[in-house]
Amino acid sequence: MHFQGLVGLVTGGASGLGRATAEMIVKQGGRVVICDLPSSSGQETAKQLGENAAFAPLNVTSKEDVQNALQTTMDKFGRLDVAVNCAGVASAARVYNFKKDQPFDLKLFQQTIEVNLIGTFNVIRLAAGMIGKNAADANGQRGVIINTASVAAFDGQIGQAAYAASKAGVVGMTLPIARDLAKQGIRVVTIAPGLFRTPMMDQLPESAIKQLEASVPFPPRLGHPNEYALLVQSIIQNPMINGETIRLDGSLRMQP
Questions:
Q1: Engineered SS bond to 55: which of 42, 93, 205, 245, CB 3.0-4.6 Å?
Q2: pTM given for the model
């Protein structure tokens, strides 16, 4: 796929990995619809990226919001080639807090699954219908859907039961959805980032961040959002990458 004229839709596009991806698409000659919560800086981000960017307020768990975002994409740019799912939430709690004699809040578990897993699938199922209307290229390809999991899907830590489960679900549905959409020429790929310097990570004390950096074998630092975007670029350009989850983690393997 060539970036000139390409149209992408990025959820969680107002910050972190999503913003870096949106910036990459525009820099490479494409156009992008930035999707994020109404309270986000999505509108401002789109203005900064210029006429080849637009903002669509969106909660990934809402069918209507995703449909409206897709309609904005069609109205503004006339097509959709790439959907990148970066929207997500983090949660941390033990299954049972024995000091407080409290079990994990079931609503928190449900919310994490709802946003990270069901929200991702909601975008996939609706975006696929729009991408599938494209004319196929020389490879028979019509577009690509890229999801964001986490190394927590494989190396979940204490307190990450909900988060790890939600991201493992994204990993688990990647191959069957890729097989499902193969006849329509739509690829499906998932990225599982390790420790990246995002607004979510910036909430931690600097001392904790330094400790996390020391746990990454090489390079011994947090990942930069533009490095995530570089992998998105490679996936878009390489038609043979399909049905796979790619770890992007500096060979990090989280220990209990």
A1: 42
A2: 0.95
Q: Looking at residue 238, what is its pLDDT?
A: 96
Question: What average pLDDT does the segment 141-162 reach?
Answer: 96
Give ∠ CA 115-116-118 in degrees, rounded to 5: 70
Peptide bond into 256 cis (omega under 30): no
Q: Which of 35, 39, 49, 40 has the alpha carbon at shortest distance from 85?
A: 35
**Contact criterion met (CB below 8 Å) for 224 and 183:** no
Residue 188 and residue 144 in contact, taking contact as beta carbons nearer than 8 Å: yes
pLDDT digits (tens, 9 = 90+) for 51-82: 999 999 999 999 999 999 999 999 999 999 99
Q: Where are the alpha helices (DSSP H) in 135-214?
A: 152-155, 161-181, 206-214
Phi-psi region of 188 (alpha: psi -120 to 50; beta: other; left: phi over 0): beta
CA Rg value for the chain: 18
Closest CA to 87 of 128, 174, 146: 146
Report the alpha-carbon distance of residue 243 to residue 38 in Å, rounded.
32
- Please state, in angstroms and rounded to a whole number, the distance separating the CA atoms of residues 188 and 175: 8
When pLDDT is cut at 50, 70 and 90, the band that residue 148 belongs to is very high
pLDDT band at 228 (very low <50, low <70, confident <90, very high): very high
- Write down the catalytic residue from 163, 170, 173, 188: 163
228 is catalytic: no
Q: Are 134 and 142 in contact (CB under 8 A)?
A: yes
User: Are the CB atoms for 30 and 77 separated by under 8 Å?
Assistant: no
First-to-last CA distance in the chain? Answer: 41
Q: Is the pLDDT of residue 204 over 80?
A: no
